[in-house]
Design brief:
Number of helices: 2
Largest sheet: 4 strands, mixed
Distance between the termini: 26 Å
Order of helices and strands: EHEEEEHEEE
Helix content: 10-25%
Radius of gyration: 15 Å
Structural class: alpha/beta
CATH class: Alpha Beta
CATH topology: 2,3-Dihydroxybiphenyl 1,2-Dioxygenase, domain 1
Oligomer: single chain
Length: 136
């Protein structure tokens, strides 16, 4: 029996712009786009994980029970620079912690996203690209 976290499912008041946000800024790929539960659902591959986007506005203010999405990278400065080229504006600078560097951003529908670069990828079990379980 295989058990593992497959995806996070988010609401979107504009599914097309939410898909484009993840495609443009994080190279996410659309792997499925169809109707499910009566509305359009889009499955995006982001590294070895998935985000499902539900074509329906959020039902509550930011977050509900979920605090944020965490997106790992091995080049936080490079990712931030690429996002700036695409017109993304950061409210804060990258913060340094002992074990990682990070910056929090707002995505579509005020979705809180943490972009981070771990200084201890082995300890956090973050795998390199092409490995079975992770992405950096």
């Amino acid at each position: 029996m295989r058990i593992g976290l497959d995806h996070v499912h988010i609401f979107a008041s504009n599914v097309s712009s939410t898909v484009e946000f993840f495609r443009t800024l994080f190279d996410a790929r659309v792997v499925w786009d169809d109707e499910a539960a009566g509305v359009r659902n889009v499955r995006l591959a982001l590294g070895s994980a998935f985000i499902h986007i539900y074509d329906q506005p959020p039902k509550a203010p930011r977050g509900g029970a979920m605090h944020h999405l965490g997106i790992a990278t091995d080049d936080l400065e490079g990712l931030a620079s690429r996002m700036k080229v695409h017109g993304f504006r950061f409210r804060n600078e990258i913060r340094d912690e002992r074990n990682f560097r990070y910056v929090m951003i707002s995505g579509p529908d005020d979705l809180l996203i943490e972009l981070f670069q771990c200084r201890e990828p082995e300890r956090w079990q973050i795998k390199s690209p092409g490995s079975e379980q992770g992405n950096v």
